[in-house]
Design brief:
Layout: H1 22-29, H2 32-58, H3 64-69, H4 76-85, H5 92-104, H6 118-153, H7 158-172, H8 175-189, H9 203-237, H10 240-247, H11 252-263, H12 265-289, H13 295-304, H14 308-336, H15 348-353
Helix pairs in contact: 2-14, 6-7, 6-9, 6-12, 7-9, 8-9, 8-12, 9-11, 9-12, 10-11, 12-13, 12-14, 13-14
Pfam family, one: BPD_transp_1_N
Protein name: ABC transporter permease
GO molecular function: dipeptide transmembrane transporter activity
Protein backbone atom coordinates (compact mmCIF):
# COMPACT_ATOMS: atom_id res chain seq x y z
CA UNK A 1 0.00 0.00 0.00
CA UNK A 2 1.33 3.43 -0.90
CA UNK A 3 1.32 5.97 1.91
CA UNK A 4 -0.25 9.34 1.32
CA UNK A 5 2.11 12.16 0.55
CA UNK A 6 2.61 14.70 3.33
CA UNK A 7 1.85 18.37 3.06
CA UNK A 8 4.31 20.62 1.27
CA UNK A 9 7.42 21.26 3.38
CA UNK A 10 6.77 18.37 5.81
CA UNK A 11 9.27 15.48 6.04
CA UNK A 12 8.12 12.19 4.59
CA UNK A 13 8.12 9.48 7.25
CA UNK A 14 5.41 7.20 5.90
CA UNK A 15 2.71 8.52 8.26
CA UNK A 16 -0.61 9.21 6.50
CA UNK A 17 -1.59 12.88 6.50
CA UNK A 18 -5.08 13.42 7.91
CA UNK A 19 -7.61 15.03 5.61
CA UNK A 20 -8.48 18.65 6.40
CA UNK A 21 -11.53 19.15 8.55
CA UNK A 22 -14.71 20.74 7.22
CA UNK A 23 -14.09 23.80 9.36
CA UNK A 24 -10.65 24.27 7.85
CA UNK A 25 -12.00 23.87 4.33
CA UNK A 26 -14.68 26.49 4.93
CA UNK A 27 -12.09 28.80 6.45
CA UNK A 28 -9.90 28.44 3.35
CA UNK A 29 -12.75 28.99 0.90
CA UNK A 30 -14.50 31.73 2.88
CA UNK A 31 -12.07 33.84 4.93
CA UNK A 32 -13.73 35.89 7.61
CA UNK A 33 -12.67 39.14 5.93
CA UNK A 34 -14.39 38.08 2.71
CA UNK A 35 -17.58 37.13 4.57
CA UNK A 36 -17.47 40.35 6.58
CA UNK A 37 -17.17 42.45 3.43
CA UNK A 38 -20.11 40.67 1.84
CA UNK A 39 -22.23 41.13 4.97
CA UNK A 40 -21.30 44.81 5.15
CA UNK A 41 -22.19 45.28 1.49
CA UNK A 42 -25.56 43.58 2.00
CA UNK A 43 -26.28 45.76 5.05
CA UNK A 44 -25.40 48.90 3.08
CA UNK A 45 -27.65 47.83 0.22
CA UNK A 46 -30.52 47.18 2.63
CA UNK A 47 -30.01 50.64 4.13
CA UNK A 48 -30.25 52.24 0.68
CA UNK A 49 -33.34 50.20 -0.15
CA UNK A 50 -34.99 51.19 3.13
CA UNK A 51 -34.47 54.86 2.25
CA UNK A 52 -35.97 54.25 -1.21
CA UNK A 53 -39.00 52.41 0.22
CA UNK A 54 -39.64 55.12 2.81
CA UNK A 55 -39.21 57.94 0.29
CA UNK A 56 -41.43 56.40 -2.39
CA UNK A 57 -44.30 55.86 0.04
CA UNK A 58 -43.95 59.37 1.45
CA UNK A 59 -43.77 60.93 -2.03
CA UNK A 60 -46.99 59.23 -3.16
CA UNK A 61 -49.88 61.60 -3.92
CA UNK A 62 -52.10 62.49 -1.01
CA UNK A 63 -51.72 63.46 2.62
CA UNK A 64 -50.36 60.58 4.76
CA UNK A 65 -52.38 61.83 7.70
CA UNK A 66 -55.63 61.66 5.74
CA UNK A 67 -54.66 58.19 4.50
CA UNK A 68 -53.98 57.00 8.03
CA UNK A 69 -57.24 58.52 9.24
CA UNK A 70 -59.19 56.52 6.67
CA UNK A 71 -62.90 57.06 6.19
CA UNK A 72 -63.31 58.84 9.50
CA UNK A 73 -63.96 62.56 9.63
CA UNK A 74 -60.81 64.48 8.73
CA UNK A 75 -61.30 67.36 11.14
CA UNK A 76 -58.34 69.62 11.96
CA UNK A 77 -58.12 68.16 15.47
CA UNK A 78 -58.17 64.58 14.17
CA UNK A 79 -55.50 65.35 11.58
CA UNK A 80 -53.31 66.99 14.21
CA UNK A 81 -53.72 63.98 16.53
CA UNK A 82 -52.79 61.54 13.75
CA UNK A 83 -49.74 63.61 12.76
CA UNK A 84 -48.57 63.71 16.37
CA UNK A 85 -49.14 59.99 16.90
CA UNK A 86 -47.22 58.90 13.78
CA UNK A 87 -44.64 61.72 14.04
CA UNK A 88 -45.74 63.19 10.71
CA UNK A 89 -45.14 66.68 12.05
CA UNK A 90 -41.38 65.96 12.32
CA UNK A 91 -38.80 66.32 9.50
CA UNK A 92 -38.54 63.46 7.01
CA UNK A 93 -35.11 62.45 8.31
CA UNK A 94 -36.46 62.10 11.84
CA UNK A 95 -39.47 60.14 10.58
CA UNK A 96 -37.19 57.77 8.70
CA UNK A 97 -34.96 57.30 11.73
CA UNK A 98 -37.90 56.41 13.98
CA UNK A 99 -39.36 54.03 11.37
CA UNK A 100 -36.06 52.26 10.73
CA UNK A 101 -35.28 51.92 14.44
CA UNK A 102 -38.72 50.42 15.08
CA UNK A 103 -38.30 48.06 12.09
CA UNK A 104 -34.94 46.82 13.40
CA UNK A 105 -36.58 46.08 16.75
CA UNK A 106 -39.38 44.18 15.01
CA UNK A 107 -42.06 46.85 15.41
CA UNK A 108 -43.49 47.50 11.92
CA UNK A 109 -46.51 49.45 13.08
CA UNK A 110 -50.24 48.77 12.95
CA UNK A 111 -52.37 48.14 9.88
CA UNK A 112 -54.72 50.99 9.02
CA UNK A 113 -57.34 48.70 7.53
CA UNK A 114 -57.53 45.97 10.18
CA UNK A 115 -55.78 47.46 13.21
CA UNK A 116 -53.65 44.31 13.54
CA UNK A 117 -49.93 44.28 14.21
CA UNK A 118 -48.07 44.37 10.88
CA UNK A 119 -45.38 41.96 12.08
CA UNK A 120 -48.01 39.34 12.93
CA UNK A 121 -49.82 39.89 9.63
CA UNK A 122 -46.63 39.39 7.63
CA UNK A 123 -45.70 36.34 9.69
CA UNK A 124 -49.02 34.68 8.89
CA UNK A 125 -48.61 35.30 5.15
CA UNK A 126 -44.87 34.65 4.87
CA UNK A 127 -45.03 30.87 5.34
CA UNK A 128 -47.36 30.36 2.36
CA UNK A 129 -45.29 32.59 0.07
CA UNK A 130 -42.05 30.82 1.03
CA UNK A 131 -43.62 27.43 0.33
CA UNK A 132 -44.86 28.65 -3.05
CA UNK A 133 -41.46 30.12 -3.98
CA UNK A 134 -39.59 26.95 -2.97
CA UNK A 135 -41.96 24.71 -4.93
CA UNK A 136 -41.76 27.00 -7.97
CA UNK A 137 -37.98 27.02 -7.66
CA UNK A 138 -37.96 23.20 -7.59
CA UNK A 139 -40.10 23.11 -10.74
CA UNK A 140 -37.73 25.53 -12.50
CA UNK A 141 -34.69 23.45 -11.54
CA UNK A 142 -36.23 20.11 -12.51
CA UNK A 143 -37.30 21.41 -15.92
CA UNK A 144 -34.82 24.14 -16.82
CA UNK A 145 -31.51 22.48 -15.90
CA UNK A 146 -32.00 19.14 -17.74
CA UNK A 147 -33.35 20.92 -20.82
CA UNK A 148 -30.42 23.34 -20.72
CA UNK A 149 -27.88 20.52 -20.51
CA UNK A 150 -29.61 18.66 -23.34
CA UNK A 151 -29.71 21.79 -25.51
CA UNK A 152 -26.02 22.45 -24.82
CA UNK A 153 -24.95 18.92 -25.67
CA UNK A 154 -27.10 18.86 -28.81
CA UNK A 155 -26.38 22.44 -29.90
CA UNK A 156 -27.83 23.52 -33.26
CA UNK A 157 -29.74 20.28 -33.62
CA UNK A 158 -33.43 19.51 -33.56
CA UNK A 159 -33.58 18.78 -29.83
CA UNK A 160 -31.76 22.05 -29.12
CA UNK A 161 -34.24 24.06 -31.20
CA UNK A 162 -37.21 22.34 -29.56
CA UNK A 163 -35.87 22.97 -26.05
CA UNK A 164 -35.15 26.61 -26.80
CA UNK A 165 -38.59 27.08 -28.33
CA UNK A 166 -40.24 25.66 -25.23
CA UNK A 167 -38.15 27.97 -23.06
CA UNK A 168 -39.14 31.03 -25.09
CA UNK A 169 -42.82 30.09 -24.89
CA UNK A 170 -42.62 29.60 -21.11
CA UNK A 171 -40.71 32.86 -20.61
CA UNK A 172 -43.01 34.97 -22.80
CA UNK A 173 -46.27 33.65 -21.34
CA UNK A 174 -47.65 35.97 -18.62
CA UNK A 175 -48.25 34.34 -15.27
CA UNK A 176 -51.97 35.08 -15.25
CA UNK A 177 -52.44 33.60 -18.73
CA UNK A 178 -50.47 30.47 -17.92
CA UNK A 179 -52.35 30.09 -14.65
CA UNK A 180 -55.75 30.34 -16.36
CA UNK A 181 -54.73 27.72 -18.94
CA UNK A 182 -53.53 25.32 -16.23
CA UNK A 183 -56.74 25.84 -14.23
CA UNK A 184 -58.88 25.15 -17.29
CA UNK A 185 -57.00 21.99 -18.29
CA UNK A 186 -56.04 20.37 -14.98
CA UNK A 187 -58.89 21.61 -12.77
CA UNK A 188 -61.96 22.00 -14.96
CA UNK A 189 -61.35 19.41 -17.69
CA UNK A 190 -59.32 16.73 -15.91
CA UNK A 191 -60.17 17.52 -12.27
CA UNK A 192 -56.72 16.54 -11.03
CA UNK A 193 -55.92 19.59 -8.90
CA UNK A 194 -57.94 22.24 -7.03
CA UNK A 195 -58.40 25.56 -8.81
CA UNK A 196 -57.90 27.99 -5.93
CA UNK A 197 -57.28 28.36 -2.22
CA UNK A 198 -55.01 26.49 0.18
CA UNK A 199 -57.41 23.78 1.30
CA UNK A 200 -58.61 22.97 4.78
CA UNK A 201 -56.86 19.65 5.30
CA UNK A 202 -53.37 18.62 6.31
CA UNK A 203 -50.01 18.96 4.63
CA UNK A 204 -50.99 16.70 1.74
CA UNK A 205 -54.08 18.75 0.91
CA UNK A 206 -52.07 21.98 1.12
CA UNK A 207 -49.42 20.57 -1.21
CA UNK A 208 -52.11 19.49 -3.67
CA UNK A 209 -53.48 23.05 -3.75
CA UNK A 210 -50.00 24.49 -4.37
CA UNK A 211 -49.10 22.25 -7.33
CA UNK A 212 -50.66 24.40 -10.06
CA UNK A 213 -49.47 27.72 -8.58
CA UNK A 214 -45.94 26.33 -8.23
CA UNK A 215 -45.94 25.07 -11.83
CA UNK A 216 -47.21 28.46 -13.04
CA UNK A 217 -44.53 30.30 -11.08
CA UNK A 218 -41.72 27.90 -11.98
CA UNK A 219 -42.42 27.76 -15.71
CA UNK A 220 -42.14 31.54 -15.91
CA UNK A 221 -38.39 31.34 -15.09
CA UNK A 222 -37.60 27.98 -16.70
CA UNK A 223 -36.50 29.73 -19.88
CA UNK A 224 -33.91 31.79 -17.98
CA UNK A 225 -32.28 28.72 -16.42
CA UNK A 226 -32.44 26.88 -19.74
CA UNK A 227 -30.60 29.66 -21.59
CA UNK A 228 -27.96 30.07 -18.89
CA UNK A 229 -27.30 26.33 -18.61
CA UNK A 230 -27.14 25.87 -22.38
CA UNK A 231 -24.62 28.71 -22.80
CA UNK A 232 -22.49 27.41 -19.91
CA UNK A 233 -22.45 23.84 -21.28
CA UNK A 234 -21.45 25.01 -24.77
CA UNK A 235 -18.67 27.16 -23.31
CA UNK A 236 -17.33 24.32 -21.17
CA UNK A 237 -17.39 21.85 -24.07
CA UNK A 238 -15.06 24.18 -25.98
CA UNK A 239 -12.47 24.27 -23.17
CA UNK A 240 -9.06 22.76 -23.87
CA UNK A 241 -9.08 20.36 -20.92
CA UNK A 242 -12.47 18.96 -22.02
CA UNK A 243 -11.19 18.50 -25.59
CA UNK A 244 -8.06 16.79 -24.26
CA UNK A 245 -10.08 14.46 -22.03
CA UNK A 246 -12.32 13.45 -24.93
CA UNK A 247 -9.26 12.90 -27.15
CA UNK A 248 -7.79 10.54 -24.53
CA UNK A 249 -10.91 8.42 -24.70
CA UNK A 250 -12.40 9.39 -21.34
CA UNK A 251 -16.02 8.18 -21.23
CA UNK A 252 -18.60 10.78 -22.16
CA UNK A 253 -20.41 10.45 -18.84
CA UNK A 254 -17.19 11.09 -16.94
CA UNK A 255 -16.38 14.13 -19.06
CA UNK A 256 -19.88 15.48 -18.52
CA UNK A 257 -19.96 15.03 -14.75
CA UNK A 258 -16.36 15.83 -13.83
CA UNK A 259 -15.53 18.62 -16.23
CA UNK A 260 -18.52 20.11 -18.02
CA UNK A 261 -21.13 20.23 -15.25
CA UNK A 262 -18.60 21.35 -12.62
CA UNK A 263 -17.64 24.26 -14.83
CA UNK A 264 -21.25 25.38 -15.18
CA UNK A 265 -21.87 25.69 -11.45
CA UNK A 266 -20.83 29.35 -11.10
CA UNK A 267 -22.86 30.87 -13.98
CA UNK A 268 -25.87 28.73 -13.16
CA UNK A 269 -25.82 29.67 -9.46
CA UNK A 270 -25.56 33.32 -10.47
CA UNK A 271 -28.69 32.86 -12.54
CA UNK A 272 -30.36 31.05 -9.66
CA UNK A 273 -29.97 34.15 -7.48
CA UNK A 274 -31.75 36.21 -10.12
CA UNK A 275 -34.42 33.54 -10.49
CA UNK A 276 -35.20 33.63 -6.78
CA UNK A 277 -35.66 37.40 -6.97
CA UNK A 278 -38.00 36.99 -9.94
CA UNK A 279 -39.97 34.28 -8.14
CA UNK A 280 -40.56 36.55 -5.15
CA UNK A 281 -41.86 39.27 -7.45
CA UNK A 282 -43.93 36.81 -9.48
CA UNK A 283 -45.90 35.62 -6.46
CA UNK A 284 -47.97 38.83 -6.64
CA UNK A 285 -49.72 37.78 -9.84
CA UNK A 286 -49.81 34.04 -9.12
CA UNK A 287 -51.41 34.48 -5.72
CA UNK A 288 -54.06 36.72 -7.26
CA UNK A 289 -54.91 34.11 -9.92
CA UNK A 290 -55.17 31.22 -7.46
CA UNK A 291 -56.65 33.24 -4.53
CA UNK A 292 -53.78 32.38 -2.20
CA UNK A 293 -53.54 34.46 1.00
CA UNK A 294 -49.81 35.17 0.75
CA UNK A 295 -47.59 38.23 0.67
CA UNK A 296 -48.46 38.99 -2.95
CA UNK A 297 -52.18 39.19 -2.34
CA UNK A 298 -51.56 41.21 0.82
CA UNK A 299 -49.45 43.71 -1.12
CA UNK A 300 -52.13 44.22 -3.77
CA UNK A 301 -54.90 44.76 -1.21
CA UNK A 302 -52.69 47.05 0.89
CA UNK A 303 -51.84 49.23 -2.10
CA UNK A 304 -55.52 49.35 -3.09
CA UNK A 305 -56.60 50.55 0.37
CA UNK A 306 -53.43 52.64 0.86
CA UNK A 307 -52.41 50.77 3.98
CA UNK A 308 -49.09 52.61 4.31
CA UNK A 309 -47.52 50.64 7.22
CA UNK A 310 -48.18 47.30 5.53
CA UNK A 311 -46.88 48.48 2.15
CA UNK A 312 -43.67 49.82 3.71
CA UNK A 313 -43.06 46.71 5.79
CA UNK A 314 -43.73 44.26 2.97
CA UNK A 315 -41.58 46.15 0.47
CA UNK A 316 -38.72 46.15 2.97
CA UNK A 317 -39.22 42.42 3.68
CA UNK A 318 -39.16 41.47 0.00
CA UNK A 319 -36.03 43.59 -0.54
CA UNK A 320 -34.36 41.87 2.42
CA UNK A 321 -35.21 38.40 1.09
CA UNK A 322 -33.77 39.27 -2.35
CA UNK A 323 -30.59 40.65 -0.77
CA UNK A 324 -30.18 37.51 1.33
CA UNK A 325 -30.60 35.33 -1.77
CA UNK A 326 -27.87 37.30 -3.56
CA UNK A 327 -25.64 37.07 -0.47
CA UNK A 328 -26.03 33.29 -0.37
CA UNK A 329 -25.12 33.13 -4.06
CA UNK A 330 -21.96 35.19 -3.49
CA UNK A 331 -20.89 32.91 -0.65
CA UNK A 332 -21.53 29.76 -2.67
CA UNK A 333 -19.27 30.79 -5.55
CA UNK A 334 -15.93 30.30 -3.71
CA UNK A 335 -17.14 26.96 -2.39
CA UNK A 336 -18.09 25.75 -5.87
CA UNK A 337 -15.05 27.04 -7.78
CA UNK A 338 -11.61 27.28 -6.11
CA UNK A 339 -10.53 29.81 -8.76
CA UNK A 340 -12.93 32.36 -7.28
CA UNK A 341 -11.64 32.04 -3.73
CA UNK A 342 -10.14 35.25 -2.35
CA UNK A 343 -6.35 35.35 -2.17
CA UNK A 344 -4.92 34.56 1.23
CA UNK A 345 -3.00 37.53 2.54
CA UNK A 346 0.24 36.91 4.36
CA UNK A 347 0.41 37.72 8.06
CA UNK A 348 1.67 41.18 8.97
CA UNK A 349 4.63 39.76 10.89
CA UNK A 350 5.80 37.86 7.83
CA UNK A 351 5.47 41.00 5.73
CA UNK A 352 7.60 42.98 8.17
CA UNK A 353 10.31 40.32 8.16
CA UNK A 354 10.32 40.33 4.37
Amino acid sequence: MTAELPATGAPFDGTPVPAPRLRDRLGTALPWRYVTRRLAGTAALLAVLSVAVFALVRLAPGDPARTLLGARGATPDALAAVRARYRLDEPLAAQYGHWLLDAVRGDLGVSIRTGADVTAVLGDRLALTVELVLLGFAVALLVGLPLGVLAGLRARRTSDRVAQSLGVVALSTPAFAGGLVLIYVFSLLLGWFPAYGTGDGGAGDRLLHLVLPAVTLGLAVTGVLLKLTRAAVIRELAREHVTFARARGVPTRTVLTRYVLRGTVVPVTTGIGLVLAYLLAGTVMVEQVYALPGLGQLLVSSVTFRDVPVVQAEALLIAALICLANLATDLLHPLADPRLRPAQTAPRRAKRQA
